[in-house]
Amino acid sequence: MGIKNLTEAEEKEFYRLVGKMNGEETDKEQDVKVKKPEIGTRYFYLDSVGDIVNAVWDDTEYDNTRWDLGNVFLTEKEIVFAIEKRKVEVELERYAKEHNDPTLEDSYFILYDEYNEELDYDVWADYRPQGAVVFASKQLVFDAIESIGRDRIIKYIFGVESVGEE
């Protein structure tokens, strides 16, 4: 038995706890998984009309409001992806609102089957999964997929870049 039996993450946590036990101050920021940009870092955000704007992080009220809304991106690639993802989300939401029966009894929603690299559906009668667009029937699920585009949904909603590519 010994420290060698621990995973790397467990070992780091062990040493962090030993340091805390010994009264050593630790930088609380180092444990944060998602950090705000450092002052002076250039970042991108989406303005009110959908244009990509860049700014320098100065930790101002504007910077922090953008951060709180999830509107801070460190690369142009990240913001372009986020814009396309939001477009697909809106298209799915609008398709559901336009086609769902007002007396929604069951909750049908889109799933991604990683093993088969295919979109599928699931249904729950009494629950609605967080963040899922709900459809009134499995037929509407497949109609929405056809209308919006299978590859777009897989790429932007489920974050899978290269479906079916070998």
The profile of the biggest β sheet is:
2 strands, antiparallel
* Spatial gap, N to C terminus: 44 Å
> By helix and strand content, what is the structural category?
alpha+beta
Rough outline: extended
Tally the beta strands. Answer: 4
Number of helical stretches of at least 4 residues: 5
- Strand line-up of the largest beta sheet: 1-2
Describe the structure.
- Helix 3 crosses helix 4.
- It is built from five helices and four strands, in the order H-E-E-H-H-E-E-H-H.
- The two termini are 44 Å apart.
- With 166 residues, it is of the alpha+beta class.
- It has helices at 8-21, 61-68, 76-99, 138-148, 150-157, and strands at residues 42-46, 52-56, 107-113, 118-124.
- The radius of gyration is 22 Å and the shape is extended.
- The model has no long low-confidence stretch (mean pLDDT 86).
- The protein has a two-stranded antiparallel ribbon with strand order 1-2.
- Helices cover 39% and strands 14% of the residues.
SSE blueprint and pairings:
Blueprint: H1 8-21, E1 42-46, E2 52-56, H2 61-68, H3 76-99, E3 107-113, E4 118-124, H4 138-148, H5 150-157
Antiparallel strand pairs: 1-2, 3-4
Task: Report a brief summary of the structure.
With about 170 residues, the chain is an alpha+beta fold.
Which keywords apply here?
extended; two-stranded antiparallel sheet; single chain; 166 residues; alpha+beta
